[in-house]
Amino acid sequence: MTLEGKLLIGQQAVAGASEPIQAIDPSTNQRLEPAYAGGTAHDVDRACGLAWAAFDRYRETSLEERATFLETVASEIEALGDTLIQRAVAESGLPRGRIEGERGRTCGQLRLFAQVVRAGEWLDVRVDPALPERQPMPRVDLRQRHIALGPVAVFGASNFPLAFSVAGGDTASSLAAGCPVIVKAHSAHPGTSELVGRAIQRAIAQCNLPEGVFSLLFGSGREVGTALVADPRIKAGGFTGSRSGGLALLKVAQNRAEPIPFYAEMSSINPVFPLPAALEARGEEMAKGFVASLNLGAGQFCTNPGLVIAEQGAALDAFVATAGAALKESAAQTMLTPGIYDAYQQGVARLASHDQVREIARGQVGETPNQCQAGLYVTSAEAFLNDEALQEEVFGSTSLVIECQDAAEVKRVADRLEGQLTITLQMDDADHDAARALLPTLEHKAGRILVNGWPTGVEVSHAMVHGGPFPATSDVRSTSVGTAAIYRFLRPVCYQNLPDALRPEALKEANPLGLKRLYDGRREG
Amino acid sequence: MTLEGKLLIGQQAVAGASEPIQAIDPSTNQRLEPAYAGGTAHDVDRACGLAWAAFDRYRETSLEERATFLETVASEIEALGDTLIQRAVAESGLPRGRIEGERGRTCGQLRLFAQVVRAGEWLDVRVDPALPERQPMPRVDLRQRHIALGPVAVFGASNFPLAFSVAGGDTASSLAAGCPVIVKAHSAHPGTSELVGRAIQRAIAQCNLPEGVFSLLFGSGREVGTALVADPRIKAGGFTGSRSGGLALLKVAQNRAEPIPFYAEMSSINPVFPLPAALEARGEEMAKGFVASLNLGAGQFCTNPGLVIAEQGAALDAFVATAGAALKESAAQTMLTPGIYDAYQQGVARLASHDQVREIARGQVGETPNQCQAGLYVTSAEAFLNDEALQEEVFGSTSLVIECQDAAEVKRVADRLEGQLTITLQMDDADHDAARALLPTLEHKAGRILVNGWPTGVEVSHAMVHGGPFPATSDVRSTSVGTAAIYRFLRPVCYQNLPDALRPEALKEANPLGLKRLYDGRREG
């Protein structure tokens, strides 16, 4: 399978005409062929035109047709075989096992959404049948279903070249909801993007769907992404990446003539609270688990534990000492891109030079380019409370321990936290009261609260929330991982007295889809 | 019951210290006592402080406790008796029957939300139980529930002094979701607002809830509202009113350090499409129904039919002639405020002076102040397509008929419409194909599509959608009327491996609330 270095617009491969991007193998700093010339305003316009033309047909595909399409995308990705794995490894510097696992997650996610589509709960069908005899006024027949918002702009993330990229979570949930998707590929992995994009193209052709259901654009700067979000035919956006990138696109979405929902998942430092009894009883084991989580994927997870908050004392000192020792042994790992590596170096330098922060340990120094040397630092709660800059995310394997004088100070630090994707409690039975006292605050601050685990590792399931208050995300009402993500791309429409012949299948009185409707306020069994 | 003219902050009545507002009886232009001195930044701060202090307790009230509170609010509003009716009539110029009906709707709405709270579906409980034996990785226990967003800023609307005001839809759905509410009263009906606010205060005291669950602020300009939406303790907003007012507050919500959801319901001209067979068969009856809907409440409904779009010809001419004749007989009705009357006069003058618009009829001239003289105008589809200004809402009993050359031109006009709350089809069996061809476009444009009825009159029920694409609302994903409105003020939180003793009631394994959970992907029966 030869990479062509072209945009994929509907079923066509189109040569770009603006500044090219080219992937770099971060482990060698070698450029990888081919170059991908960027898209132009004309390409954005064509992709949006096709997406809009495909929208009405695609959003009304039957549950079975749409589910089969999602499954076909998964099969086509698997059919790429080792070509995909090799290219993704080369473009990301991530180990082969990780990329294979991520492929499994990506395809599993598509198949899980196929099940969700078939079950049809997302339609949220509500029927209030007419009450012609009601006094003082009769009630008309009212039926509600959810329909797709429209074409969605999806931005590939650097850190999950498969699971949060071209056929990643945002694409899967958009397609499941009935929305055509236009992906702006992340410039770090254009070859991986092309391969997956072609798999989606093939699935569309196999399923006889209109070509505009999917397009894939490349571009070196922000022009293509900005033009995409600004296009009036785009009705929502999904983004995973930096705070500055997410906020810039959010502003574009808000400042349109017609503002649209824009789901940006941005920054999170995922605080960990080791509570006193647990810290006392098993601080050493905890320290090792913490360092393992911190090092996962060179710390390039949205849920990387970048902050540890605990009461000072011998138990915390022992935790820090053990974590420091483990971290010193940590091998350096290749980061995703030279740019991410540079930002990491700057972030660590900023932390290390802070006059209230002391270094506990650094990991092994890298021997090949762009390798992340892990870092562990300590500061006081007072310093943390007095300097917002200490909450800035350092994307990579570095974490900061906050020493608090007592439980009240732990609570004050919790109160001051920005919004997070996750907050972790390490606790034993004797910590229940302390946990109970903290929980309401933690609920204000995070989308997921976890106990005696580590935040890295995000299950793709029904109950998962990968979201949270700003700046973790731009919209606290939703999740970007798990089946509830389908609701991000839907809106309710009510039909009043529409004749049964004209009703969509989901709303017909005979309930041909067998949905558990909310019928006259009662849930059908 | 004597009106005090004070802000209600928690359980206190507090004298304002900024420029006062005073209601005007629009039927006489007489000022109504007392004056309400406006709130200051300090008052906003106090109300927000109390709301935040009340939030954690209020959001964790049991389903029964919260439902009983909503019902107590309804009872306390009813206990105001005729005092409330008289004051609302005086402040709004609306007929007594209408205000009585609106009180019934307001209290019914609170009681319906009490039922919704008790049923607990809004918690959307999802449980993915642990799978310790799963390969290659075990699954942890994951449980999701929805919790309240936080204190909500609600803006009272002029046109429904009860149902969209202090204890109106936004307040009812916020309180149902577990959010404390701070209302910025509409300056047109401060006395009505005070009465209802005191009823809510009494319900809070009776139910032993923290006082910060509700506050009521007054203010003459935009300062109080702006300060309220900007306050970091406010986590969402609800607004019904003008496009300029809604957009200004939306910008405040978006430009905060932490942006928040802001639900503004703004402008809609609610197009009506009489399809050919129906127009031919019953154009005369249809014209009368149309004029009755247009005149309801002096045309001051969000769902007032401000646009009629049909194919030209004898049938449309007859419809227009009949509607014109009915409209000529329409009595003038008092509008809500002198300001709304002035804006109406300007809007009609703008339309009447348009060189492509011709007047068909005007209603009766008023004999008392601020009376709305109905108006019916006609223009061509070509003129409409060439001038966006012809889509501007004229708030009051004026409508514009668009004559189209053929069905294709009807479709082009539909394509060009802005987002709407409602779109109405008048159709007979022979119109099914025409309706089928239009429906996808109408679904893009409106939150509610109705057949052979009139858009005024919005049922408060489960299937209702009172929402729609921008500029009808600022957020197409929701409704402001009906039980689904509770979802506007909720966010998902996931708990991973939280011990059962610490889980909220809704998430305990034994399911003490008897919820129909999504358990391991299957809906419990």
TrEMBL record, chains A, B:
Residues of the Aldehyde dehydrogenase domain: 16-468
CDD domains, sorted: ALDH_KGSADH
InterPro entries: Ald_DH/histidinol_DH, Ald_DH_C, Ald_DH_N, Aldehyde_DH_dom, Aldehyde_DH_Superfamily, ALDH_KGSADH
Keyword Ion transport: no
Name of one Pfam family that matches: Aldedh
Signal peptide range in chain numbering: none
UniProt keywords, alphabetically: Oxidoreductase
Domain of life: Bacteria
Keyword RNA-binding: no
Family annotation (PANTHER family): ALDEHYDE DEHYDROGENASE-RELATED (PTHR43353:SF3), SUCCINATE-SEMIALDEHYDE DEHYDROGENASE, MITOCHONDRIAL (PTHR43353)
The protein's name: Aldehyde dehydrogenase (NADP(+))
